[in-house]
Structures are given as structure tokens and as C-alpha cells.
């Protein structure tokens, strides 16, 4: 049986998790590169941040038992 850390590492190295996490980070960076000048920019930042937090929460809540 895999330990919690081994299971977390396996998940973090999965193509799906890496792709989604990288996409959310790029989205966050792009908001700052183009600047926050409207309500839509804040909404974009909020959406990207929620997506990143969701990906992190998946790793934190893994219970291999």
C-alpha cells in the first residue's frame, strides 16, 4: 500500500494535475502582465486563483486508506 506522501507525489506528477496547475499559474501571471484595470480583470484573477486552490486542495485531502 502506498503512503500518503507517495500517493500525493504520484498525483502531483500526473499529467492532468500538472497541466491544470500550470494553466492556472499562467492565467494568474497573465493577469498581472496585462495589468488589473477593470472588474473583469479581478474576476479573471479570482477564477484562476480558485482553480489553483482547488488543485492544491486535491493534494492536501488525499487519504490513501
Give a description of the structure.
The chain is 78% helix and 0% strand. With 65 residues, the protein is mainly alpha-helical. The protein has a domain at 15-59. The longest helix is centred in the last third of the chain and has 22 residues, at 39-60. The radius of gyration is 15 Å and the shape is elongated.
Provide the β-strand percentage band: under 5%
> What is the overall pLDDT average?
92
| Rg estimate, integer Å | 15 Å
Q: Which residues sit in consecutive blocks of at least 5 with pLDDT less than 50?
A: none
H/I helix tally: 3
Bulk shape? elongated
How do the SSEs run, as a string of H and E?
HHH
Content-based structural category: mainly alpha
Could you give a short account of the major beta sheet?
Answer: none
Tally of extended strands? 0
How far apart, in Å, are the first and last alpha carbons? 9 Å
Q: Outline of this structure?
A:
This protein is 78% helix and 0% strand. It is mostly helical and 65 residues long.
What's the helix and strand layout?
Blueprint: H1 4-12, H2 15-34, H3 39-60
Helix pairs in contact: 2-3
Amino acid at each position: 500500500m502506498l503512503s500518503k506522501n507517495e500517493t500525493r507525489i504520484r498525483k502531483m506528477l500526473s499529467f492532468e494535475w500538472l497541466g491544470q496547475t500550470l494553466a492556472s499559474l499562467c492565467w494568474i501571471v497573465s493577469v498581472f502582465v496585462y495589468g488589473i484595470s477593470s472588474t473583469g480583470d479581478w474576476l479573471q484573477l479570482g477564477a484562476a486563483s480558485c482553480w489553483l486552490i482547488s488543485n492544491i486542495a486535491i493534494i492536501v485531502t488525499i487519504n490513501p486508506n
